[in-house]
Structures are given as C-alpha cells and as structure tokens.
Amino acid sequence: MSATETGALIARALASFNARDVEAMMACLSEDVAVDIPSAAREIGADKARWQLANLFRFLQAEAKDIAIMTAAGGFRAAAEFTLIGTYLATLPGFPPARGQPFRMAAGLFFDIDDEGLISRVTVCCDPARLSAALRAD
C-alpha cells in the first residue's frame, strides 16, 4: 500500500468517526485489529473495537478537527494529530458528572496497516487527566 493510499484510508476512518458511522469505521479495520487506549488493556478484534467505538459515542459527541495525517514511506505506518471537539453526553466512569458540557483537547492516533490495506493497530494518544479537567470547566 502506498503512503498516499494509507493517508486516504486514515482520512476515511476519521471522516467515519466524525459522522458517527460505526460500520464505515469498521470497514477500515482488520478483523484482528489491536486497539490501545490510555489506562486500559489492549483489546484485540473487530467486535471489541466496534463495542469500544459505540460505547465512546454513548458518552461523547465528538469530532476530530484540524487533522494532520502523516504516513511513513511504504504506507505501513501512519499517525494523525487533531483537536477533539465535542459535548460530554453521559458520565464516564471515573470522570466528572456529565451536564452537556463542551470540551476541546489535543489528541492523536498511531496506526499500523496490514498487507490487505486495513488498519491492524490503532493506538489512542490523549491525556485522560486533561480530558477530566476540560469536563470540569464551566
């Protein structure tokens, strides 16, 4: 897969996220995708990734804005940096109570791309303490 094709794959995945389209997002992921989230154990498999994404949408209405996608030569690795902007819909365990408060924070994702041209690993990079502080702000 070329770096250009990988960039298009990542752009499609993030557009699916912004549209809250779980199935379109899943079409970008391999069946054995590994998902790493801060302060959580690695989850492996498309079914677990689908559940994580749907669960996230239950708590947050969020969009990735000001997206910068970077790809490695050969297209087998990529990264995306963006600003996550949204509304806190329901109380996340261990976070402040949800009152519909808006939030904004920097975030990033790292990706591995498999030989089939699908995302085989996604590592979420964000600071949970910074998110918690943003949700406390009035």
TrEMBL record:
Q: Which Gene3D superfamilies match?
A: 3.10.450.50
> Which Pfam family, any one, appears in the UniProt record?
SnoaL_2
| Superkingdom, taxonomy of origin | Bacteria
Q: Which residues form the SnoaL-like domain?
A: 11-121
Per its record, how is this protein called by name?
Answer: SnoaL-like domain-containing protein
Q: Which organism is it from?
A: Chelativorans sp. (strain BNC1)
Taxonomic lineage of the native organism: Bacteria, Pseudomonadati, Pseudomonadota, Alphaproteobacteria, Hyphomicrobiales
